[in-house]
């Protein structure tokens, strides 16, 4: 408010000053003519007065003409120099011109910064005019669509029929279309068309390949879970309905109840594996690890495998590596149990299953070798995906959930280990967990008797890394 008041006062003072200077200039001419009238003839004094007025008018007209020419193209011409009554006006125009130039420079710099920031966006931006010609585009759009120059129809660069149909639709707010661009094979993009005003539209191109893959994985996961649960649920419902509707003898009733129990156990294992996998994915990167005594753990798991096999397989343990491993005990037990259980399920009667632990190639190798049915090469890249099965019917018959190897892979990743799968159809498979050397823990070195007796007790020694053993030939 105060600034506006001061500006009005300055404007009034400037106008008043121009009027006073104009009147003063006219009075000066009249006084000079009157003074000359005293020394010269009246006619000659009058002629001088008229000539002076004509010169003054011509100067003012010339200055007004030059000022008008400057006002038409102020950036291409310098401001004309004036004197007398024009001095305050020229000063004011000079001040306004400097302010305008500073504003234009500031706006230009701001616009350059905005353009630089927009060019760094990963999304492509294209401004279209009312005829769908390109008015402006950022670097991402130029790279994605091959756009160059302006005032070219955008459909010359994006030639998909779906996009052409989207361009023809006007009104109704934003439009969205998913498609693959010819310039970016294998990628999926989402094109959004927004109407900014009656004359322009903004086209936004966004790479949604990862999001589309995630949506597909989520959809497949829901479909697989529904399918895996529906099968045992259907069996349980069928047997339960039969038990309720028919009068069965004790033997048949027990068979039906046994079938219901088996299917319910399958659903229980499925839910348990899902919960375990979810807990592994939610777990923090920091592990609650400790030094695991591997030999008793592996012996216990081999004993469980023999009980599951029921004498149908030859199951053995080869322990040749360091005695302890720095890891989360429950997770390592779960991973090895899944591998051993799979070996029992997919190895025909009379087959051989070997669980081994050794140090090799600067790593600790925990392997499960079987002489089972094997896995074809085309299945190996996807064998650790959730619910992926080489033989669905056989997996269900043996009680598998399709999540075992996915759990093993996740546990391996959490321990910075790798899972290697070597398999040949008809000859068997080898699943190997390779742990880095820093997780291998050896026994402390033996303390000589004389040192122990002199000290009174054995010194505490931090467990060093075990020197790696010679490679073991399969």
Order of helices and strands: HHHEEHHEEEHHEHEEHEEHHEEEH
Which residues sit in consecutive blocks of at least 5 with pLDDT less than 50? 451-474
Tally of domains: 4
- Named at the architecture level, the CATH assignment of the largest domain is 2-Layer Sandwich
Distance between the termini: 92 Å
Radius of gyration: 45 Å
- Helical amount: 40-55%
Largest beta-sheet characterization: 5 strands, antiparallel
In percent terms, what proportion of residues is strand? 15-25%
CATH topology of the largest domain: Heat Shock Protein 90
Question: Top keywords for this entry?
Answer:
474 residues; alpha+beta; Beta-Lactamase; five-stranded antiparallel sheet; 51% helix
Give a structural overview.
The protein is an alpha+beta fold. The protein has four domains: 113 residues, no CATH class; 87 residues, Beta-Lactamase; 66 residues, Signal transduction histidine kinase, dimerisation/phosphotransfer (DHp) domain (Helix Hairpins, Orthogonal Bundle); 170 residues, Histidine kinase-like ATPase, C-terminal domain (Heat Shock Protein 90), CATH 3.30.565.10. Helices cover 51% and strands 16% of the residues. The chain has twelve helices and 13 strands. The chain has a five-stranded antiparallel β-sheet with strand order 2-1-5-4-3. Helix 1 runs antiparallel to helix 2, helix 7 packs parallel to helix 11 and helix 8 packs parallel to helix 9. The protein is elongated, with a radius of gyration of 45 Å. The C terminus is likely disordered.
